[in-house]
Each structure stands twice: as C-alpha cells, then as structure tokens.
Amino acid sequence: MILLLAGSDPGSNLDGLLHFAEQLDLAGFPAVIDETVFPTDAARSLYYDAAPYLANADETAFDHIFILAAEAVSEETALRLRQLSTHRAEIPVTMLGHFDSHQSRVGATAKVAYALGREPRVIDLEAIGTEPLRGNGFPLVASVGLPHRDEAPRPEVVLIAPGDLFQEPLALSLLGAMAQLRSMSTTIVTNAKGRDVLRDAGLSDIRAFGFSEMTPHALARLADIAVFLGETIPGERMSHFALQVMASAGVVIDGTGDGSLLASGAPALLGPKSLGAVVPYLEQSVLPNRARIGQEAKQSTWLERRSLNVLIREVGLNGTGKKNSPTAAPSRTVFLPTNGLGLGHAQRCALIAAELPTQDDILFLASHACTSLLAPKGFAARPMIGRSNLHELDTAHDVANYLRLRQELRPGDTLVFDGGYVFDSIYRTILEKGLKGIWIRRGLWRPGQARSANLKRETAFGQVIVPDEAFEENRAQVTFGPAIRNVGPIVEVSRLSNTQVDATRANLARRFRQDFKQLVVTMLGSGVAVDRTAQLQAISNFIGMRPDVLHLVVIWPGARVPAGLGAQPNTHLVRTRSSLALAQCADLTISAAGYNSFHEFLYNGVPAIFVPQIAPIMDDQEARANAAADRGLAVAVMPEEILRLEREIAGFLDNGRGADIRQALAKVKLPEPGNKDAARLISEVSHAR
Amino acid sequence: MLHQKPRIAYCIDPRFPGGTSAAVASEVRAISGIAQIEIHAATRSMFGDRPPHAGLVKALSELGLPIQWDAPVIQADMVLLHNPSFLKFASDMAHRIVCRKLYVVAHENFERPGGGESFDVAGCLNVIDRATIALEKTLAPVSDHNRRTIHDWLGARPSHARWTVLDDNWFNILDMDMVTPTGHPADRRGRLSRPGLEKFPSTETLDACFPPHARANVLLGADPLMALDLVRPHWTLLKFGAMDVTQFFDMIDFMIYFTAPTLRESYGRVIAEAIAAGKLVLTDRANQGNFEGAVIGCAPQEVDGIVKAMIADPEIYARQVTRAQNVLAQNNADRFRALVLAHTRTRGVAA
Q: Which terminus of chain B is less hemmed in, N or C, by CB atoms within 10 Å?
C-alpha cells in the first residue's frame, strides 16, 4: 500500500492526488490518500471521487510514502511526515516534483529530511520526461487501465468549454444542432455557469457534466473525441482527462486560446477556436481519419514518456504490483433494487430473475430488509446501506454504497437497477467500470416528474426496460430511442385454490383465537414515504366495532407503526412474505396502489380498496387506482377521504361489493405479463460482447 | 610611512533573524577601532519585507555606521560577505565587488549529514564569483564541523577549486556574561531552539532525554511538538519567545540538546548561551567538536546516567561548567581583532 501526500495545500491539490492514486490502483499498486487532507467544505462529487482512496494514515499499514508536487513542502506536510514516520523508520519515502531550480530541490529535500530524520528519494519529473502540464509537480501519467477503443459508428464527442462560450451569439443554436447530428453524439463538460445556461435554454437533450462530476478516467471511457475550447485547459482534472483520451487512442483537439496542450508537445490536433467551426472541422478533417489520428497519438513518444510504467520503473516498484484481473472471474447479472427499502423493486427483480435461463450468476445487492426477502427465494444477496438521519451527510449512505458497488462489480458484469432515482453511486459505477447497465424504470410518472434531471441519467444505461401498466392511459412514453424497451406488467400470478383459502382462514382463526366471518387485510405501505397513521387508525377503529371481522395489518420490515394501533382486539399486526396469498384469503384488502400490489390484485382476482400514496418521489398511484376504479375493478379512495373510506369498507362487508369486483376481475382482459420478456432482454444484454 | 586602517566592507543581508546578524553585530563592534568599515546590503531579499535584525541595527547605530543600500559597487581592501545562503534564490548580486580579498563567511554548513546539500551552494558561490573582482576568494568556516562540510563539498566539486579555505575559523565572538554554576544541581532539564522540525530529534530521543522522573523538563521553542500534539504530562512545552532566555535558564540545570539526525549545527549558539548561563550541556557527540571540552557528548540513552552522576557530585558539575566557560571565553573580541589584523596584514592588504 502506497500512501500519497501532497507537498503543500493538499485540499486544493486533491485532484492531482486522486488522479495519481487511481492510476497506481489501476496498475495494481494500491494507493491511499491521508484523509486528514479532505476539505470540510468539499463539493458533493468530491466525496465520491475521494472515498475509494481516503484512509486514516495513522492506522493504515502502508509500505511506501510518495510526496507529490514535492517542489514546495509546507510546514503542515512536514509535521504530518514527522507523525507518520514515527515508528516507521524502514518505510521508503519518495519525493516527486517539478523543481524549477537546484535550490528548490535542495530546499524541499532538506525539509523532508528534517521531518523524517533520514534522507528521502527525490525524483525530478522533468528529468525523467514526465514534466507536468500545469506547472506544479503532480505527475501527469497515462492510465494503464483503459480498454481497447472500438470504432463506434457514431463517435462520442466530448466538448469541454466554459459557460461564457455558450453566451456568445448562436452558440446555443449550434449546440442544439450538434445534438441532432447523425455523424456524432455530443456530451458537454462545463462549469456551473455553463450548466445553468444549458438548463435555462432547455437544451436538455444534450448530456452535460460538470468539470468535477466524473473522474477523468470515467469521462475518458465515454470520449472518442475530446474538443477543448475556451482560454485554457480548465484545471488538473481536465489535463488528466485529455491524457487518458490520448492513451486510449482517442482524438484530442486543442482549440484553447493559449494552446497549452499543443505547447507541451502533446499529440493533440490544433483545432478551431470558435464553436461554429467545430462541426465542419470534425466532419471534414477528423472523422475520416479518426482511427489513424488516435493510433498515432497513442504511439507518440510524448505519451510514452508519460506512461505510469516509466515512473514505476524509476521509483523501483517493478515486480511488486499485482495487476487487477477483471476478466478472470465470470461475469454476473447483478440486480440492484433500491429507493427507500426497495421491497417492491426487489420483488419485481426477483420475478424477472426467476425467469432467467441460469440462476448461478445472479447476485442481488439490496437493503437489509430485502435480503431477508430474497434469501428464501434462493438468490444470493448482499446488503446495501440505507439513508439514515444519524448520518452526518445526506449522501453518506450512497458514498458507502458506491464503495460497495466498486468492490462487488467487475467490468463485464451486467447491472440491473430497479428504482426511481439513479443515485450517484450507480451512475458512477456503471460509467467507471464500463458495466452493461440496465434500468428497469417506472412507466407511470407524476405530472412534471418526467422532466427531472434524474431521467438524464438514463443515458448511462445501455437498455431501459419499462414494465407496462395494466391500463393504456397510464402508459405514456417519456423518453424514446432504441434503448427503451417496453414489456408487459411484471407481476406474480399465483392463485390459491378454494381449499387453500379455506385452510388459511382456519389457520388464522386458530392463530388469533378469533372465529371470524370476514377477513380484512390492510397493507398501506411502510409509512416511510407517506404517513398512514390517520387511515390505519380509522380502519382499525371502524372494524373494531365489528367483532366478527378479523383485521390484519401487514407490516413491512422497517415500517413505521402508529402507536395504539393494536388497541382494537380484532386488529393484529402481521409480518408475512406471502402478502398476496393473505390478500387472496381476504374478503377485503385495503392497499396502497404501488405497482406490485396493484397488478398482483388485478391478475389474481383480489377485490381491493386502493388508497394511493401521494408523494413527490413516488409514481402516480392516484392515476393507477383511478384506472382500476373507473373500470369497476377496484375502489379508489384518496388519502384524505377518511369518512368515505369507512363507507366503502361497509360496502364490502355489508353489501357484497367484493363479490361484484371479483366477478369483474374474472372477466377483464389484461395484458400478458412481461416477466419472461424482461428476463430475455436482460439475458441478451448480459451475453452480448 | 603612514599606515592607514584597512578598509573593510561588509556585504550582508541584515534581515537574517538569528545567529548570522548577531555575529556580524559583535564583529563590527570588535573591529570598528582597527578598520574603516562600510556596511552594504541589497533591498532585494529572500526575507521579503522583514526589517533588519534589531541587535545589528543597534550596534551599527551606536557605531555610526549606516547601511548603504544597493550600492552598485562595493570597493574595499577586504570584503566580508556573511552567510552566502542569502543568495540562494538569486541569479545575480545587486552589487559589483572590487577588492583585494573576498572572505565569504560560511555560517551554514555546506552539507548535511549524509551528504545532501544544505542549500544551493554552487549557485550562491557562482553568483558571488561572477560579481567579484578580487585577488583572493576565500571561504571562511565558522567552526571545525563547518570546515569539514566545506572541504567535503569542495572535494566532490573540483570545478570550484578556485575557492580557497581559510586555515583559521572565523569564530563567533562570545561577549556574554558568564554566570557561576549552581553548587546544588538538581534534575532540572531543558532545551531551547528555534521552532523548526530540524531542531527536534525523534520522539524516542526526546523521551529518553526528558523522562518522567526528572524534576523538571522545560522545552522552550517547542512549537512543532505542540503542533504535533506530542505532549507528555511531565513536559513543560513553551512556544518560541514565550519567555525570556534568562528566565528559561533559571528553570534548568542541564541543557540537553539533540537535533534531527539530518541536521548538524554549524556552530550551535544556543549551546554557547547555555554554557554562559552556567548550565551543563549534554549533546550529540557530533556536536562535540565545535565545543571541545565544553560539552559532554553522549547518546540519548546515556543522558540519564550522566545527569544522575552530576547531581551526585556537584563539584564535578561545577568543574565541568567552569571549564566550558573558559573554553568559550577564548572566543573573545581581542582574539577576533587579532585574527582580522593577521589577515589584513600578512597578505599586505592595507599597505
């Protein structure tokens, strides 16, 4: 393990440290950065960038210390070195710097020697030909981990430009036109101002990242061609990105005002400085020669000097690195149901997974609540971390999940995500690992939701499977393209026989010591996203006046249960993995209108009152419930209609409403379930090369 | 024949905060009666806007010697350039120097233990060399150890052989009052230094030198230890300048002085100050050479035994401190004047 320190101001120089750590890691030399350097006011994306490499250096067993940008060694760094070297007298220390004078080298070396009480090894980057682009001494080294670049028929052009450029006349029109080109696909990397301009202009069709949103390595995976515009290369991170693109035989075009890439001798093309000239230049000069330009760049001596291997040899790390072997293990299909507890998503994924031709290569990464649901179905499952109010940061759980995903997933794996919100952890892991990404995405959006920034992350997935709703009016398309595939509703069809129903009811009577004539099952949701206290109390009080009714409230793992709910003698809280079976035994089921429950009841003939959960993050349960109610297949009661809810319950218990609905359900023609189709699509992606 | 006093010009950076400026102040006082003195300095400085050293300014003011800033030419029989490291970031000098003899008084060691350079010596010497027309260009060591580092450095760099090395040490004048040592030494230990990491040995060494059973362990200038949160309940850590040096010496009977092993003092002024204050000094054997017979050279693990022995026999303690003070007393102004006169006369500088 190598510990990386910056000569000075590590907070500001974190990009350089992280890039170098990533390169070492890819080359099989695990490296960490002292966590004390992490700034307290770090941007959200930096937490993800840094998390894989931060470590408590005091407690880490490292065997080498590298000091980067060692031409300037601050008092703080010297003190930290003194601390870290105490009791570690045998660990080698190597300074890597860009020394602009002999005094700079002598002075910095002495400072480190005083801190250590022994002499460090000193490597002048300029002397070994890997001088940095930007003046400081962070080694600009090429990745050893990028895969072979295929000749994409529609190459991805990554345009790196400051927001000011987009405010020039016609700039937005030009960008809009670029997004429609068949000859290339466009991604923009810009600053906050640039993203604001694009958003305000409604150019949501163009994929845009902030400068610090993706690691240079992940961004380079996307880019076939990188075009730099503006005054200069914007920062350390983008310099690294340029290098990664060149190292993977991509084309880099320097259209910056100062031409700093070209001035350094980099194998970049001198490009136009104006946005308007970019497309003609690309189409006329670059695209026809793209492969040759990329290969020449990759084979250039400039790039060869910047190979990490040169540095590794110079430091003398040869032979100790253990190369990652991502292709050694067979690829897997990894299901990631999430958002909230993710029980519904996990259930849906399990139905699809059960239809896959082989089950051996399936892994579930899910909340702890879900893993207990999945294990009995025979699926391997490992827990992910849920959001908690106890976490200091609201993204803490997702940063931790990001680390788990990085650890679990390997290039070549297929990641099947089922959820409403594409967390940074998922988005980043797909792009960074080059995974085959599949999103099982809701088809029914609340008004306005479909324009959310979240949907823009759809582009990270090679395929989007949209399970249909049962009824046509709820099947609006929100995004289009060959990657979007609709399948029939994903639903469990598992009808109980009359004998099974009778036996179950008899068991319930024994278990709860109550001879009942009618059974009511309530499953209004976990109460986490939406508070259901009022509805639950109203239902249990109303049924409490009917001693011949047994009322079972299904409690999901992690659910919030209102105090006093068990005060009614005929109301009982139950946990079950067979809620569908329980509902089939009931005379009335009162349920939220989530995708799974809704379709299970329709397809298995369960008469129900749907009380939709209405929350900004949820799908449009109201529309779903109303669609069934309008066809006489259920009753829909809005959450605030408490008195009406009581009347509707009475209608089932006293007036035979349940029987009417059962009859209607028996007659209705519903679409074929899509479980098998979804599994087939996943299988095709998994087995595609 | 009328004998004129020799013209001696000082080329210095008066903003050196420590020993260099103090040494120049003592020197100028010592020789003001035997030479015509000029003081030259450049406004351009590695020390930025820091004001000149207060002690030096006071001495020059009392002697009526103004600092001449940025004179294009320094002309004298002998030019004394003190501590060339002030040129380590410079590509040229602000002055041209024309003289018979140029003495560059080293002050800093040219090499650290292990052979690493202390600063860009060649760069500094080349800048001086290019700016100077002189019959002799001489490097003047301030101590025996300083001399060794100069010889080692020159030995590895034949291209600098034009520089000769003075046979005598250009010693620091110690015009301090000598305090009589205590007749009842107690286990009261301390150390004093500037607050740089180079002045501090490893934690193990500090623990060995300043153990819990000592009656007092006072560490003045301990800013790095405080920054590292390296505290011990039996240590009194004081920031640099937190108290007067005299007050500090009143709190101890033994000065225990070890530095980072990658540093050797070129002279060790704090050691001299401790001796003058009547304290017994224990230090690294490598520092012993500069104070032959005046300090006890030892390893950190030996400190405890020596302290115990001295406390057990106060007479030996007093004898050792008195002997040390006698050694120091040899570095006086009279001897320094003789040194300067010898070097101005013998080679016919001021004919």
A: N
